[in-house]
Design goal:
This protein has 366 residues and is of the alpha/beta class. It contains 15 helices and 13 strands. The strands form three sheets. Strands 12-11-1-4-5-6-7-8-13 form a nine-stranded mixed sheet. Strands 2-3 form a two-stranded antiparallel sheet. The longest helix has 23 residues.
Length: 366
């Protein structure tokens, strides 16, 4: 693993709270059932200031606020954090990924003035007036567009990210045209790979009753993880060659609990959720077993690293964590002989498509 002096990028989850209930997000199981494993946490500005000491700020080139479960704009200290970077390390690039549905337009205008020159806010807008809310439950197209427009008109640089489904695929071209008119710098289109075992994903209410279905787009084939692949998943992963993305990118991830991991995928294991009921089909049974094994590997890994407390960025500096001998030597073992499922699934040559493989980027002309 790389040394601290090589660290380039820090990915942050400064809050795991979110006002939305996107059905494929692990915060809410199928959009309606609360994830009982998720422990709500937020960074304070004091946390941020302590973790990003002078040595760390002078080392890194990019900070992006995203995460596994939350939306960074839900953190009440985000503006102060951005201002801290701007004042102390103005050459660092800052990226913020958000559904854009929270806060007022005046807050979004203020955000621009807190950001360094090199910045981007990525707004997740999956459709237009009549479709956006179908996936982005808890947000409205009008509100998100108003917030994005306020930010852009104040001088902010923003991207529009559009996930395609059957219900909104016909609107991608119109959405791209609107993005140019509003002033978004880039328009991106991608497919989701979260359809597991079926090309119908049920959206449920709080009682677990299905209220409607999501379906993949018809104009661009999505590789579904079907029953056969699920059953043979373990075998496929064990044979996979792992090519770690964050090793190449020189990146680390710090979660909402202020614990340091190489990436967001490894950090998510204790908080993922799958209901343990007795009426499961074969696919869901294997998914649950896979979750259990992934969690077992997570605890084995963290114990080998000295325990979760040894990964706390509040107790140890980022430099101390990365340069620790255990951190430096352990990864090769877990990529080769122990074969971490998470690493093989995300960064392995498994034959399964990944979101980054189905990503289309268009840069809007000025």
């Amino acid at each position: 693993m790389f040394q601290f002096k090589e660290l380039n990028t820090v990915h942050l989850e400064i809050s795991n709270r979110c006002q939305a209930s996107c059905p494929m997000c692990p915060r809410k199981y199928h959009g309606g059932i609360t994830n009982e494993n998720l422990k709500i946490a937020d960074w304070t500005f004091d946390d941020f200031e302590k973790i990003f000491d002078t040595e760390t700020l002078s080392q890194i080139r990019l900070v992006y606020f995203c995460g596994n479960f939350g939306d960074p704009i839900m953190n009440n200290d985000l503006l102060r954090m951005c201002s801290f970077i701007k004042d102390n390390a103005p050459n660092i690039e800052v990226r913020i990924h958000t559904n854009g549905g929270a806060r007022t337009t005046s807050w979004w205008k203020e955000l621009f003035h807190c950001l360094p020159i090199n910045h981007t806010v990525v707004f997740a807008i999956d459709g237009l007036e009549d479709t956006h809310h179908i996936y982005r439950i808890g947000t409205t197209y009008e509100n998100v567009i108003n917030n994005a427009r306020a930010f852009i008109e104040e001088g902010g640089i923003a991207d529009w990210a559009f996930i395609k489904f059957k219900h909104n695929e016909h609107q991608a071209s119109e959405a791209e045209m609107r993005s140019k008119k509003i002033g978004f710098k880039r328009f991106t289109v991608k497919n989701t790979t979260r359809f597991v075992g079926s090309d119908r994903f049920n959206v449920v209410d709080e009682k677990g009753d299905t209220i409607y279905y999501l379906e993949p787009p018809t104009d661009n084939k999505v590789s579904l993880i079907n029953a056969d692949s699920i059953i043979n998943y373990e075998k496929i992963l064990k044979q996979s060659e792992i090519n770690c993305y964050v090793l190449d990118a020189k990146e680390i991830y710090i979660d909402a609990h202020k614990n340091v991991f190489p990436c967001c995928f490894l950090a998510s294991a204790p908080y993922n959720y799958s209901p343990k009921n007795t009426h499961l089909d074969i696919v869901q049974t294997y998914v649950n077993n896979f979750y259990d094994k992934t969690l077992e590997q997570y605890y084995d890994l963290t114990n080998a690293l000295g325990g979760i407390e040894r990964l706390s960025a509040l107790k140890y500096s980022i430099k101390e964590i990365i340069n620790d001998d255990r951190w430096q030597r352990i990864w090769e073992e877990y990529w080769s002989s122990k074969k971490l499922y998470t690493c093989a699934r995300v960064c392995g040559k498994t034959g399964f498509s990944k979101p980054k493989d189905q990503f289309i980027l268009r840069v809007n002309n000025d």
